[in-house]
């Protein structure tokens, strides 16, 4: 019996050691998750986007410590007169990188490790299946061993109890009637508390997320690929959404704006290089989608002129686009305040729009998301007449008393800024 107890204790000790070793791996920063949450809207590991490609960034910058300072507060590094920082700032159109003071040095290093590990799609396809299977097998080894030891510990625990009961019966000692574990008051109380916590979490989380549409991707009347237009053909966002820098609304372009190009472009010729595929995996005929545009615009592609009625009016009808980004009615948001004054890139809120064949809502657009952005984003004070009245902050920046001014500093968290 003592032997059984020793074996049980040894098995449990080994189980705890393996569990702790796994926990240390789980506790390490997830570079991929951090990259997607903080960097993906402006950077790509392998190619330039709004910002430079990040792969090999640790080899390009002066030092790891410099990189940490840059991520925490790029405006401060630029203001210090650092030559490398100012050259980088000028090279990318004097668009300052968003500060991330909340990221630790360890998390920044995890992001760098991740982007350096990303392989090009072609290179990734050349990996041998045998190597992949070995890697997958190794990743499952520890969980399998852990579960096996846990099962062994339970079996030995039951064997120990059975042997004790046999010994007590043989020695004439009283044998206590066992109560099933699921009928113990402590077990019942623990299960009730856990169920209560989980139910409360899902109810509260569901209530908080009511009305939010992150990842919402409706089917549109015309399959319009932003990747083809804004990505491959490099059409500026403002050509179609002209109001983004001039008014509160970014504006959805009318079919007339589309026809400026498609009077001469009547077929999609990029199917070989970039076939159009929707989120369900169905191949889309780009030329047929252009014909849909002609129907809405009232254009005759054969005669190269607009169709008109007897009174001379063009037989056109509006395209019934499905709205994707919706804010609550009590929220005031001004595009020009952010894109023109704040010089925020479209990708900051809309994600990598130039890579989307079908547009979806990238950000949660929640109040917390907006508030955090106002707390972390430095205002573009230089060469910006909108902020010329803030003489105190301009003086402090020149004197080196502050490295930057956030939206929060100029009242960006006041309720009436967004709720009139």
UniProtKB/TrEMBL annotation:
Signal peptide interval: 1-27
Every Cytochrome c domain range: 26-119
Database matches in InterPro entries: Cyt_c-like_dom (IPR009056), Cyt_c-like_dom_sf (IPR036909), Cyt_c_III_dom (IPR020942), Multihaem_cyt_sf (IPR036280)
Keyword Signal: yes
Highest taxon above the source species: Bacteria
Transmembrane segments: 140-159, 186-208
Keyword Lipid metabolism annotated: no
Keywords assigned: Electron transport, Heme, Iron, Membrane, Metal-binding, Signal, Transmembrane, Transmembrane helix, Transport
Cross-referenced Gene3D superfamilies: Cytochrome c-like domain, Cytochrome C3
Entry protein name: C-type cytochrome
Provenance organism: Rurimicrobium arvi
């Amino acid at each position: 019996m003592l032997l059984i107890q020793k074996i049980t204790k040894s098995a449990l000790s080994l189980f705890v050691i393996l569990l702790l070793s796994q926990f240390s791996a789980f506790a390490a920063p997830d570079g991929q998750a951090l990259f997607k949450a903080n960097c993906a809207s402006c950077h790509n590991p392998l190619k330039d986007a709004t910002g430079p490609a990040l792969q090999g960034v640790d080899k390009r910058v002066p030092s790891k410590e410099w990189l940490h300072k840059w991520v925490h507060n790029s405006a401060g590094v630029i203001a210090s007169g650092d030559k490398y920082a100012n050259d980088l700032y000028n090279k990318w159109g004097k668009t300052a990188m968003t500060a991330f003071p909340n990221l630790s040095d360890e998390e920044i290093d995890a992001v760098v490790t991740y982007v350096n590990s990303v392989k090009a799609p072609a290179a990734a396809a050349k990996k041998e299946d045998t190597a992949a299977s070995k890697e997958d097998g190794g990743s499952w080894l520890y969980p399998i061993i852990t579960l096996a030891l846990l099962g062994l510990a339970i079996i030995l625990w039951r064997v120990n109890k059975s042997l004790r009961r046999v010994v007590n019966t043989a020695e004439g000692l009283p044998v206590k009637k066992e109560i099933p574990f699921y009928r113990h008051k402590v077990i019942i109380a623990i299960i009730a508390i856990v169920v209560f916590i989980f139910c409360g979490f899902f109810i509260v989380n569901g209530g908080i997320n009511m009305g939010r549409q992150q990842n919402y991707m409706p089917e549109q009347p015309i399959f319009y690929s932003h990747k083809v237009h804004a990505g491959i053909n490099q059409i500026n966002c403002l050509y179609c959404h002209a109001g983004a820098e001039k008014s509160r609304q970014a504006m959805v372009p009318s079919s007339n704006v589309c026809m400026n190009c498609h009077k001469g472009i009547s077929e999609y010729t990029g199917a070989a290089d970039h076939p159009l595929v929707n989120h369900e995996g169905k191949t889309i005929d780009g030329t047929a989608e252009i014909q849909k545009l002609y129907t809405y615009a009232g254009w005759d592609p054969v005669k190269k002129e607009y169709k008109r009625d007897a009174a001379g009016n063009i037989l056109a009808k509006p395209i019934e686009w499905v709205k994707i980004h919706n804010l609550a009615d009590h929220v005031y948001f001004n595009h020009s305040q952010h894109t023109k004054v704040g010089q925020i890139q479209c990708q900051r809120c809309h994600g990598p729009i130039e890579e989307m064949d079908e547009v979806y809502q990238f950000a949660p657009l929640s109040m917390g998301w907006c508030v955090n952005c106002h707390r972390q984003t430095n205002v573009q004070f230089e060469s910006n007449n909108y902020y010329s009245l803030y003489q105190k902050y301009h003086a402090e920046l020149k004197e080196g008393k502050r490295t930057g001014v956030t939206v929060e500093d100029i009242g960006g968290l006041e309720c009436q800024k967004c709720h009139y």
